[in-house]
């Protein structure tokens, strides 16, 4: 079911399957503020392209990558913080927006922006697990009288 409504000076088509966030984003963002982005994985395969608002944060992109990650891959991210996004040679910070990370206007006109997605498991879990294993293997006690 589709319904067309007027929102300010724009006509907005609302589908019954659209979420509220999608409807609000379509109503607020002019076409030039949307960016197509595809994510290149470690093996050369791609996820996307997907269309994002220039105001979307890098953290939002990472959450989408975790959701869309192909199930047959040997490396699987469990949470968004395990993913590092690289664009134009820079590691992107979670609090930055897509608009702050894209190329100067005109360089990618009509093309999807490519970001490299690298999985880097969190070190805290690995170190904690290793310490527990090591503590069970080493047993040394001294008694001085």
UniProtKB/TrEMBL annotation:
InterPro entries, per the entry: MUB, Ubiquitin-like_dom, Ubiquitin-like_domsf, UBL3-like, UBL3-like_ubiquitin_dom
Keyword annotations of the record: Cell membrane, Lipoprotein, Membrane, Methylation, Palmitate, Prenylation
Membrane topology qualifier: Lipid-anchor
SUPFAM superfamilies: Ubiquitin-like
Cellular compartments annotated: Cell membrane
Domain of life: Eukaryota
UniProt entry tagged with the keyword Membrane: yes
GO cellular component terms, A-Z: plasma membrane
Pfam families from the UniProt entry: Rad60-SLD_2 (PF13881)
Domain Ubiquitin-like: 35-101
PANTHER family from the UniProt entry: MEMBRANE-ANCHORED UBIQUITIN-FOLD PROTEIN 3, UBIQUITIN-LIKE PROTEIN 3 HCG-1 PROTEIN
Role description: May serve as docking site to facilitate the association of other proteins to the plasma membrane.
Protein name (Swiss-Prot/TrEMBL): Membrane-anchored ubiquitin-fold protein
């Amino acid at each position: 079911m589709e319904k067309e409504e007027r929102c300010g000076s724009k006509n907005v088509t609302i589908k019954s399957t659209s979420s509220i966030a999608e409807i609000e984003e379509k109503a607020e963002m002019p076409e030039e503020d949307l960016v197509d982005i595809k994510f290149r994985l470690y093996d050369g395969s791609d996820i996307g392209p997907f269309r994002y608002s220039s105001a979307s944060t890098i953290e939002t992109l990472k959450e989408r990558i975790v959701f869309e990650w192909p199930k047959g891959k040997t490396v699987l991210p469990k949470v968004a913080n395990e993913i590092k996004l690289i664009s134009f040679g820079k590691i992107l910070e979670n609090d930055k927006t897509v608009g702050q990370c894209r190329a100067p206007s005109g360089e990618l006109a009509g093309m999807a922006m490519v970001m490299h997605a690298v999985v880097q498991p969190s070190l805290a879990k690995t170190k904690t697990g290793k310490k527990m294993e090591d503590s069970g293997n080493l047993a040394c006690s001294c008694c001085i009288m």
